[in-house]
Design brief:
Rossmann fold; Arc Repressor Mutant, subunit A; 2 domains; 11 helices; 55% helix; globular
Length: 218
């Protein structure tokens, strides 16, 4: 079972998401909360696989909570719950360590698929949304570009090729097909890339690729 904590200040939203996920069969809601403080406490208490976290909440908002959770060194994958028009906040959350985001009105099947993907360490962003969010709000500035290029010097040529495709939002299967290698080999490369670049997840690596201008803007 995939263990999930759900934190949103709107009880109606929590109820709807819980009902959807509990019918999936392989997902269990182990805790609920209404603000960022409760999110941090629930991570300590339950150590879930996935945290679904609202952005706008009283007492402690989701953005601050992501940063606090990142300091814990937890293996929990944080997925932001958002609505249209909050892209700038999403970009900040991705830099803080969130694995991605799901819209609150995501269709039920896609919501469950997103939770499963997060539990497996995958980025929860479609390729189109990845490019849109990163290009618009996390685009490189001169200092970030220089720092990103310095960090990427530790990568091999093959790892850089994988990172470019990862930065475009490609899945492991798509990277394997493009570079004529097995998915297992791709997973190994991605793991090494994340370790070398000190990135928590694929999204942070994708942002770094954009900062270094490895991925051309739209």
């Amino acid at each position: 079972m995939i263990r999930v904590v759900l934190v949103d200040d709107e009880a109606l939203i929590r109820t709807g998401i819980r009902l959807v996920l509990e019918t999936a069969g392989d997902i269990e809601i182990v805790g609920e909360g209404g603000d960022g403080h409760e999110a941090v406490e629930l991570i300590h208490r339950h150590r879930p696989d996935v945290l679904l976290l609202d952005i706008r909440m009283p007492k402690l908002d989701g953005l601050t909570a992501v940063s606090e959770i990142a300091k814990l060194g937890s293996s929990t994958q944080v997925v932001m719950l958002t609505t249209f028009g909050e892209d700038e906040h999403v970009a900040r959350a991705l830099r803080a360590g969130a694995a991605g985001f799901l819209l609150k009105d995501t269709p039920p099947i896609e919501l469950a698929q997103g939770v499963r993907a997060a539990a497996q360490g995958q980025a929860i962003l479609s390729p189109q949304i990845t490019r849109q969010v990163i290009d618009r709000y996390v685009g490189p500035e001169d200092n970030r570009e220089h720092e990103a290029k310095q960090r990427l010097q530790v990568l091999t040529d093959r790892e850089r090729e994988v990172l470019v495709l990862l930065g475009c939002g490609a899945s492991n299967a798509e990277i394997a097909q493009a570079l004529f290698m097995g998915e297992g080999t791709v997973k190994t490369h991605v793991s090494r890339i994340l370790a070398k670049l000190d990135c928590n997840n694929r999204v942070q690596a994708a942002i770094l690729a954009h900062d270094a201008r490895l991925v051309p803007p739209r």
